[in-house]
Design brief:
Length: 231
């Protein structure tokens, strides 16, 4: 009951504000603006897990780590900046055997680089590699660009509608920014891995391919609602 009373009071308070707005701008037009953009990612975050169990205990985590770092450096990866240790742990099994596990996060700059790194790690027996996420180094700037484009789209729509009835628009007195932000992008790691292996097998024939893996683009979509005075 108290909640209903509060809601009723809020509604009553809103009516005067709406009435004042209509009195101040008795003739206005309300429109929705929309804009979207798809961008190709240039930041790829991989998770690499090294486990002695994968080699049946024959190769230590430390040895695999040294081999991994050497392979990455050979490919031109700046290990100090692009490779981070995410976790170190040990697992205990029924026979009291301790198996060390190391987890890393690796940041790469292109789909071609992802394919080459995946091939190099797979050749070392490090196959537990997955994609955490993709992004873009200028993502925030692109988000602002699309957001403003949505507002310009709203103004253009208002102009066209007003022109259709022989009028024009004046100042904008209301903007509601209802954006959907960045649409999430998911990957089937097995498909990407198969693509990487296929690229590695045909590297000699397709060396000119800059983006051998089929990564999804990052989709930005924004919407705004605006009200303009009709003149």
């Amino acid at each position: 009951m108290k909640r209903l009373i509060v809601l009723a009071a809020a509604a009553l308070m809103a009516f005067p504000a709406m009435a004042q707005m209509q009195e101040a701008y008795p003739s206005y037009i309300q429109v929705n603006g929309r804009a979207e953009k798809e961008i190709t990612p240039d930041e790829f975050y991989l998770q690499v897990v090294i486990n002695e169990r994968d080699s049946k205990g024959r190769i230590s985590v430390e040895s695999q780590q040294r081999d991994m770092i050497a392979a990455l450096r050979k490919l031109g990866v700046d290990v100090e900046k692009q490779l981070k240790v995410a976790n170190l742990s040990s697992e205990f099994f029924k026979k009291n055997t301790s198996v060390a596990t190391a987890k890393y996060q690796l940041q790469l700059g292109s789909a071609a680089e992802v394919a080459k790194v995946w091939q190099a790690l797979d050749a070392l027996g490090i196959s537990n590699v997955s994609i955490l996420k993709v992004s873009h180094s200028k993502l925030e700037a692109y988000k602002q660009e699309v957001r403003l484009a949505a507002m310009r789209n709203a103004r253009q729509s208002a102009c066209e509608m007003a022109e259709a009835i022989g009028q024009s628009i004046g100042k904008c007195f209301y903007i509601y920014d209802s954006n959907n932000n960045v649409m999430p992008t998911y990957y089937d790691n097995m498909i990407v891995m198969r693509s990487a292996k296929a690229f590695g097998a045909a590297a000699g024939e397709a060396a000119s391919a800059d983006e051998p893996l089929d990564f999804k683009t990052i989709r930005l979509e924004y919407g705004v609602q605006a009200k303009f005075v009709l003149e």
